[in-house]
Amino acid sequence: MNFLSGRAGWLLLLALGLAFPFLAKNDYHLTVMSTAYIFAIATIGLNLITGYTGQFNLAHSGFMAVGAYTVGILTVDHQLPFWFAFPLSGVTAAVLGFFVGIVSLRLKGHYFSIFTLCVGYIMYLVIEKWESLTHGTVGIIGIPAPGAIGPIAFDTPRALYYLVFFFLVLGVFVMHRIATSLLGRTFMAIRNGEALAEALGIPLMRNKLLAFMLSVFYAGLAGGLYAGFVRFLGPGLAGVDHTFDMTMYMLVGGLGTLLGPLLGALSVPWLTQYLQFLQEYRFIVFGPILVALVIFLPHGIVGTWLGWRARRAAAAAPTPAPAAPATVPLPAGEAQPGAGRA
């Protein structure tokens, strides 16, 4: 983990991602990994508002569905090209997030989470019932694949994999810049104590709203990629169960870290895939594994490692030698106390 926290570690992960299509046994593995990448982008966005800013948004999958349906409606119903609709998926989610955040971020703690849970359910009902716009329960079918960019066409699973992987790398890079900037430290100050942050002169509402909009912008872009990759949409994408899946990814990897949500979003789907031979009984095995992780690694894999490394560094730090007792200068002819004793 210490190695992965440096530039060389991230370059190694980049190399593994580039080499994965040549190591995968079939196109199904590419599909599983590409889908994991898409949800990893959305999870990184959720981690910004939850892990870094301390606000648990339960409507995150609803914003992901907003981005996906933006692409689906514009490409299928209005015949716009994918590359025109795709940027609008993030923008639409962020604009909607502005209005939702203005109201919801006035609440704190569990009240904020309950409010956003209701907002997410409203999004689900709107998608399911507004048939003239969203096609209702039938869903949107026949979403076109991303169009070619020059000589690069995205008509194969491998090409789509590299497209999704590119946006994952871009999303991680931008999030790293945000997290290590003054803005990211401002978000963490709000998470650690709103009263103290406000006393330091940090405008709480403005920064929480900015974090919320950036978070749902990631969700909207992930939804736009999902629409172009899967090419079919249904109301289930807005279900709160997807938000709970992304929350699980953060908890397994490490809340409030950059590598943690990425690690959780890539490892948990593969674990469920390898437990498919158990069919409906796989959750009997998967559930206790998650419970054990939460009990024994409450800060996630990456968070626990970082805490252990910090304690080890503190224990290994040399302790300063005690300073010699100071002597008080005496007038000439007088000796220090105890001087001359045998």
Task: Note down, in words, how this protein is organized.
The chain has 342 residues and is mainly alpha-helical. It has 14 helices and 2 strands.
Write the layout of secondary structure elements.
Layout: H1 7-23, H2 27-52, H3 60-77, H4 82-104, H5 110-129, H6 131-134, E1 140-141, H7 157-179, H8 182-192, H9 194-199, H10 204-230, E2 232-233, H11 240-253, H12 259-274, H13 282-296, H14 300-316
Antiparallel strand pairs: 1-2
Helix pairs in contact: 1-7, 2-7, 2-8, 2-10, 2-11, 2-12, 3-4, 3-5, 3-10, 4-10, 8-10, 11-12, 11-14
Structural class: mainly alpha
Q: What oligomerization state is this entry in?
A: single chain
**What would you call the shape?**
globular
State the total count of DSSP E strands: 2
From N to C, what is the helix and strand string? Answer: HHHHHHEHHHHEHHHH
Strand order of the largest sheet: 1-2
Radius of gyration: 26 Å
Estimated helix fraction: 55-70%
Largest sheet: 2 strands, antiparallel
Which spans of ≥5 residues are poorly predicted at pLDDT below 50?
none
Mean pLDDT: 86
Q: Helical segment tally?
A: 14
Tell me the β content.
Answer: under 5%
N/C terminus separation: 60 Å
Task: Using brief descriptors, characterize the structure shown.
342 residues, mainly alpha, two-stranded antiparallel ribbon, 2 strands
Compact description:
Residues 320-332 have a biased composition (Low complexity). The chain is mainly α.
